[in-house]
Amino acid sequence: MNTSQRPQPRRCRCNKVSRRLDRSQKGGRLNNRERTKLAFIVAVLIVAAISPGCSRKASVKPTTIRLDYAYYNPVSLVLKDKGFLEKDLASDGISVEWTQSLGSNKALELLNSKSIDFGSTAGAAALIGKANGNPIKAIYVYSRPEWTALVVRKDSPITKIEDLKGRKVAVTRGTDPHIFLLRALHEAGLTEKDIQTVVLQHPEGRIALEKGDVDAWAALDPMMAQTEIQSGSRLFYRNVNFNSYGVLDVREDFAKQYPAYVERVLAAYEKARLWALQNPEEFRKLFASNAKLDDPVVTKVLERTDLTNSTIGDNQKQVIVAAGDVLKQNNVIGSSTDVSATVNTLIDPRYVEDMVNKNLAQK
User: Fold this and answer.
1) Span 95-104, pLDDT tens digits
2) Residue 60 falls within a domain, yes or no?
3) Cβ distance 123 to 132 under 8 Å?
4) Residue 351 in contact with residue 259, Cβ under 8 Å?
5) Using an 8 Å Cβ cutoff, are 310 and 140 in contact?
6) I need a surface site. Which of 110, 146, 224, 294 has the fewest CB within 10 A?
7) pLDDT classification of 331: cutoffs 50, 70, 90
């Protein structure tokens, strides 16, 4: 990362002011002008002394770092379970707090309310947040999944996108399944106005499908794998290229204030990701235990989840820009939004690049 682009700590001016005060006192008695000047210097000294830049060599650091964990982000489950970040931050006296996210939309809400510092979303969902004024940066790829598809009951007559016209479809707005649905409709020459959208969170969408309250569901793993295996539900439309990457987002003000700790969070994430790749059987069991999933469901989810790359950059931009164009056409983001410019300000690869370079230097 280019250090010139990072905020620099304020330089302490206390010593400089103190030296000026010493020099002014050496002349003995002071005249009125000198007394006025001295009073001003003392005032400056007091203000400077209590400013953050004059702390006693204490580095700028947060007291707590807050992250989400999500069943659609298996790496977060490893990180939480293994305590890699807690162990790294213990020497700095920094605690770690975890909050569960049920979907990208909830993670974005938590980030926007400053309830968490790091959140798990789909890349295209992060674009929606950014376009709507959520001050975040996407800084890391935790997975390249096929985690969404359009699902119907096993006895459904629906076999193609055109069959959804006039039908009830459950969806969680602002998430990758929602964006997936919009892109699928667009490809078939339809829009969201051609269907009856039923807005539900992902778990409730699965229940509504199985009960027959809706005709189809824009699904998300692991709930998608659960209904597929346990209820025989059918994935009637799949397109891996319409699934945007799973990205870790950070609040912009946190990144500006604590850039070193952003890198340390990513280093812990990398440790968790590599552990998952190096210990596939233990990873499967950990995922199953934490998410309370049956082995066949976990196996199905992991078959559709690629954890081999964590860098973020041009590939992610291309996928998110393509999604953004459809989002504009469906008025999910404003028609005046410059999608390419928004994506460029959203995706920030510097932190992960710095982390990788440091890791290489240490080898």
Assistant:
1) 999 999 988 9
2) no
3) no
4) yes
5) yes
6) 294
7) confident
Contact status, residue 293 vs residue 222, Cβ threshold 8 Å: yes
Please check whether residue 218 is in contact with residue 190, taking contact to mean a CB–CB distance below 8 angstroms.
no
Model-level pTM? 0.77
> Do residues 205 and 280 share a domain?
no
Is there a single domain that holds both residue 197 and residue 233? Answer: yes
- Say whether both 266 and 138 belong to one domain: yes
> Can you tell me which residue has the tokens 């082995």?
295
Give the total number of structural domains in the chain: 3
Q: Could you tell me if residue 267 is inside a domain? A: yes
pLDDT at 324 over 70: yes
Amino acid 81: pLDDT: 97
Over the stretch 106-138, which tens digit does the pLDDT of each residue have?
999 999 999 999 999 999 999 999 999 999 999
Whether residue 358 sits in one domain with residue 248 = yes
Which of 278, 279, 251 has the alpha carbon at shortest distance from 265?
A: 251
Does 269 lie in the same domain as 202? no
Locate 309 and state its tokens: 């790359």
Whether residue 311 is found in the same domain as residue 252: yes
One domain for residues 225 and 168: yes
Domain residue limits at 228? 150-242
Do 118 and 250 sit in the same domain of this protein? yes
* Rounded CA separation 81/98 (Å): 11
CATH number at residue 212: 3.40.190.10
Among left, alpha and beta (phi > 0; psi -120 to 50; other), residue 133 is left
Higher pLDDT, 147 or 51: 147
